[in-house]
Amino acid sequence: MKRVKLTEHYLVPLTLFVLNICLMHTIYAFESGVPYSGWHKGLLCGIALILGAALMKKNEWYLIVAVGGYLAVLLWCFQWAI
Fold first, then answer.
1. CA angle, corner 36, sides to 56 and 40, nearest 5?
2. Distance of alpha carbon 37 from alpha carbon 14, whole angstroms
3. Which residues have CB under 8 Å from 29's CB, separation 6+?
4. pLDDT tens across 66-76, in order?
5. CB atoms closer than 10 angstroms to residue 2
6. What digits encode the pLDDT tens for the residues 21-69?
7. Using N-to-C axis directions, what is the helix angle for 60-81 and 38-57, rounded to 10°?
8. Residues 6+ positions from 23 with CB-CB distance below 8 Å
9. How far is Cα 81 from Cα 11, in angstroms, rounded to an integer?
10. Which pTM does this prediction carry?
């Protein structure tokens, strides 16, 4: 029961929140005047698909890995912005 509570009450809302940020980041990358490279745009689209697949699967480890993967990409992007 604890695993279901952790997944349904914490990991799924966290993944939805991160997916929302990821989708806005992807839209910004495609629509902004800033020249993002093609592989960077592809990476953002891939991470968005992975987050969506993790939400459909609702496996605890898929959710954790998907959120961690996007956070790693986000930190890498901020490294270049500074």
1. 40
2. 28
3. 36, 40, 41, 44
4. 999 999 998 88
5. 6
6. 999 999 998 998 777 788 888 999 999 999 999 999 998 999 999 999 9
7. 160
8. 48
9. 29
10. 0.86
